[in-house]
Amino acid sequence: MARRSPASDRIDRILVVEDLPDARTWLQDAAIEAFPDATVTGVATLAEALEALERTPPDLALVDLGLPDGSGQDFILAATASSPGTISVVTSIFGDDGHLFSALRAGAQGYVLKDRSRESLADMLRGIVEGQPPLSPTIARRLLGHFHEPDSADAGLTARERDVLTLLAKGLTVAAVADMLGITANTASGYVKNVYRKLNVSCRAEATLEAARRGLIRLH
Question: CA-CA distance, 79 to 82, in Å (whole number)?
Fold first, then answer.
């Protein structure tokens, strides 16, 4: 789940995890176009990615799933556990449910297929600082179509839980949500857990899309 407040946070360090040189160059060029002032580093293996994560955790990681020495999902799991500020976005040729939902459960906060132009990808990446998860249109449709009609549109969310959900969808951190609502961080964290449980999701990206599907929020 994203943990950045769009009003204050910047993308200063970007890590591109991609073994194919041409694809890595394409991703690095898109990242530079989206964030001209950021430092962009490219690596080709899972081992190199994990070393970079430990040495200098990135603000944003663009991660291919099929690496020569493992899965990019292992990097996402490691980043989620050790570097909560890192936003992991999958860049892949795989658009099936198995890869998609496994990556989201691991902590991915976006999923982009490698059929985009550099300019289109750069536009998607810029939306991150506004709390918009980068998703290829086909991936967004797959996510929305995955769920059947819910028993209850609001999933039994309380008014306060809906407030928290709306702020999370805008990209606010849990701490920022707490400040805005005048509650403690622990209380806000409890509301977030309730929201995830009631929507049957495990991360911010899933919560945002499920809330949009139910008409609880709007994606812009």
Answer: 5
